[in-house]
Write a structure and sequence with these properties.
Elements lengths: L1 H18 L3 H4 L14 H8 L15 H8 L6 H4 L5 H14 L7 H14 L22 H4 L2
Helix pairs in contact: 6-7
Bound molecules: heme C.
The site of heme C has 16 residues, from α4, α5, α6 and α7.
């Protein structure tokens, strides 16, 4: 009994081995079937990566400290770092806060530097947000009277 079991085990081992040709080479293939070539990519990416301020979450590049001093007095920096926009869109947010939320006026130089930092570090990103739902596809608004502006 033992003998036949051993030979059966050996036989299946042999069958297994001969059924999977060149298993080592296949390991390097990606899902797309392309062979991986850029083995040094992670190191390069790490070198370029921008450091993030642990206190605010701001990317520590350019005029980030100027933005920190002007933009975190009233609300969390998270409100800014989760937002994305073109220079024009960032300016529109600033104008809205100046009009509605008591944000002070900036001299043009300061304003340009703030906008440049924001639009360069937090530019539009199509992958982040779904498109707005068209009005006629929204459920009825229970606060319709309050929202008409
Ligand atoms: C004087 C107070 C004040 C300052 C300073 C301030 N904000 Fe705001 N901000 C507000 C208020 C109030 C809101 C609304 C908060 C809420 O919705 O809870 C807001 C909201 C925002 C939002 C969210 C807008 C949205 O559509 O959800 C962004 C982005 C933002 N601020 C960016 C900035 C930036 C950039 C600066 C610096 C230039 C700044 N804030 C400085 C008061 C301020």
């Amino acid at each position: 009994m033992n003998r036949s079991f051993t030979s059966l085990a050996l036989l299946s081992l042999f069958a297994l081995a001969s059924c999977s040709p060149e298993p080592v080479e296949e390991k390097n293939e990606t899902v797309d079937g392309e062979t991986e070539t850029a083995t040094e990519a992670p190191a390069v990416v790490a070198a370029v990566e921008v450091r993030v301020d642990p206190a605010t979450g701001f990317k520590m590049g350019g005029d980030w400290e100027l933005v920190r001093s002007h933009c975190t007095g009233c609300h969390s920096a998270k409100l800014i770092t989760q937002q994305r926009g073109t220079a024009q869109q960032w300016l529109a947010m600033i104008r809205w806060m100046q009009k509605k939320q008591n944000l002070w006026q900036f001299d043009p130089g300061t304003e340009n530097r703030i906008i440049a930092y924001l639009s360069e570090n937090y530019p539009p990103d199509s992958a982040r947000r779904r498109a707005a739902i068209p009005r006629d596809l929204l459920p009825p608004n229970p606060y319709a009277i309050q929202t008409s502006n």
